[in-house]
Amino acid sequence: MTKYVIEPAPPASLPIRGSNKRFPVRRVYCVGRNYAAHTIEMGGDPDREVPFFFQKNPDNLVTGGADFPYPDKSNDVHHEIEMIVALHKGGANIPLETALDHVWGYGVGLDMTRRDLQGQCKEKRHPWEIGKAFDHSVPASDLVPASEIGHPANGAIWLKVNGEMRQQGDLNHMIWKVPEMIAYLSGLFTLAPGDLILSGTPSGVGPVKRGDELEGHVDGVGDLHCKVV
Ligand code: MN
Predict the structure, then answer these.
(1) pLDDT for 122-158, tens place per residue?
(2) What residues pack around ion ligand 1 (CB closer than 5 A)?
(3) pTM of the predicted protein model
């Protein structure tokens, strides 16, 4: 048995709806600017830019409806509601035609963003981690298996803050559909079981404050509740 000089951290994981088993998480990939209306609100041009990827950390996940602690070093933390894609098979250069076979299931997640720090990073051409990959930056719902719900390609995705609709879109507005993001991403990184992909956010992103109740939804997938504290 391998001996470690310090106690290794247990793997990050997500609960599974209706099960006492959990989904172990290896990596968290995120797609940027994957809905045209959001690309436009961020100052981009969806006809000239392709979506792109960045990563968050598995231990940034917040599960089981736990609170989201407002992070330090920011006065402009934004919500981004996204569908989570969870992979149970990996590979490199996965063909488009078989990409969905790699998906175990789906969930609802928030790509919480320190927008002010992200803005500084963009300006200085620095990497995005301080704006994106901070502690607790990925509140997530329980996952549901594709064997139960299939592979949702259309349906509403929305986020309410204190009961008021803030973000609204449809999964079929994604620029890169789920098979395309798996195929493309697997050309850049060897994907593996346990990888998550946050598939991008529709328009309407905006700031949160302590005390806000966030309620996210993806048709056919589920709901996410999270309080900012
Ligand atoms: Mn995002």
Answers:
(1) 999 999 999 999 999 999 999 999 999 999 999 999 9
(2) 80, 111, 201
(3) 0.97
